[in-house]
Amino acid sequence: MVRVADLRDAGSGRRAIDGAVALGLLIRPRNGWVALPNADPMLVAAARVGVVITCVTQAARLGLWVPRSAQHHVAAPAHSGAVASNSGHVHWAKPIVPRRPGALVDPIQNVLALVASCQPREQAVAVWESAMRKRLIEVQEMAGYSLPARARDVLALARPFADAGTESIVCHRLRWLDVSVVPQVVIAGRPVDVLIGERLVLQIDGGHHVGAQRDADIEHDARLRLMGYHVMRMSYDQVMNHWEKAQELILRAIAQGLHLAPASRRA
What we know:
It is built from 13 helices and ten strands. The chain is of the alpha+beta class and about 270 residues long. InterPro entries: DUF559.
């Protein structure tokens, strides 16, 4: 995808561009734009409608953890009142980093600022932490921008330690406990998703926990039990859609002292 104006600035003449379109070497999704026939359909759609891909949609394109959503999130300038409603969720807020002319995707700083204002706080924290893990942002840099209040709140909470968004959310939801809740602690040669107290291990299974991965998980669980750990496994659905029941199970395990080492229980 490229603007015709940018191609002409690079030295391509209008006749050559029009000829490429006539031969089917390029397509013209919108006046002023051309693209290769196999261009990313999402970029083609953004150029056609006149929007920028942003928020959780662009976060997902960058490989960040995002909550599951069927709706696309795009941004448009404040004066773009003609943007169609079928474009998805349209963000009109002024970006914290100016968008260059012809941009079809937002920079990560704008993406995260919109995530903070758009998503529930715990899910926004999980997306920011995912960006931190991938080293797409630096805390010091983000603190230097003129962030909205909700984005500053998310920045203050985000920590780059959890390995997945669900782990970030679980740790956030259990912060009220008078018990340590730590993600990604290495035990028996592998990191566990969340260690609660000294001995309660919470493993959160995504869709990839099948086949060889599942076999390795079962073996690791057995090693943990032999070492005196209590292992609880939960699914993405339990964490995201049935948290009250999931939390009750965790609290009952803590009430039985399963988060304590044997010596601590006897004491």
